[in-house]
Amino acid sequence: MIRYFIFFCVLLISSLSVKSAPVKIVCSTDNPKGSIHVVALEKFGELIAKYSNGRLIAEIHFRGNEEFPAIMGEEVNMNMMMTSHSGVHNRVHVTAIASGNASIKASILEFLMLPYIFEDKKSAMKLFRSKFMMEEINEVLARKHNIRAIGWLIGGFRHMTNSKKPVQRLEDIQGLVIRTPRNRLMRDTYMTLGAEVIPLNWELTFEALKKGEIDGQENPYSVIADSKFWDANQKYVTNNGPFLWVGPILMNEEFYQSLPDDLKNVVRKAGREAAEYEWEWENKKNNEFKAILLNNNMKILDLEDKQRWVDATKPLWEKYYKFIGYGDEAKGKKIVENVLIITNQ
Domains in the chain, please, with CATH? Predict the structure, then answer.
């Protein structure tokens, strides 16, 4: 009898230990340590462990991490998130990705890339704190794409770099070969401005610049500095900023729904707080990133005719309502109107 009792206790203890094993959340980004992606994911990992009392832990993969290297590029991570599996690789539960890349698959997010939609970063903060983003937009992302945004990152405005010449007026961009992400709106924006555009995956961009296959690209100061684009022949930075770098922290919806309600709350809380931590971090670092560019002999130039750039690209808004609304132009326009109501409050 005692032997059976001991055996039962051992089984009970084993069962409890299995139940108490933490849930591992695999996060991946093809960006390096010190990037806004990694800063946010590391903070997210810290917060989920804290708020769940160790029931959730994060395994964070990024470029240059010898223990947990980046699993794949941004576009592939996005595909993994949507399909719930990652082939021969580990499953990816969370990624941080630029909206310009996310919207290739989730076209509703193209409204975030409408040229000059954000007047400043405060406008973006208002939007990303809104129920509209966390509930209405997430409902579409979950239903159509099996993903949800648990936080929204804000970088700097995306400015153009090039190796050929100073660009300060609209005429100056003519003839330059500029890399954009594989995002039709970003491509069309630079084509409308007069550049020759080559859409290119992020992981191929540095070598293409270095080999002279393209003249330039566009990104915030932080990304230009992290990527050391001065080592890829980039000499000039033009503060044209048609796009504010924003990007979601995305979680696979199937995985999210598998969590108990209390851990869902932990994930949402940690995602929001990690994002706001990144906002503050980026604001403090922006001048440092600018100084890094100047110290590496990059010339930073302001536009002399910014309103011409704004006016030239505004017709693209109407063209893209149908994509934002998944074929329904009126629905896409309504989404943009809702965004403007929030950002202009």
Answer: 18-343 (3.40.190.170)
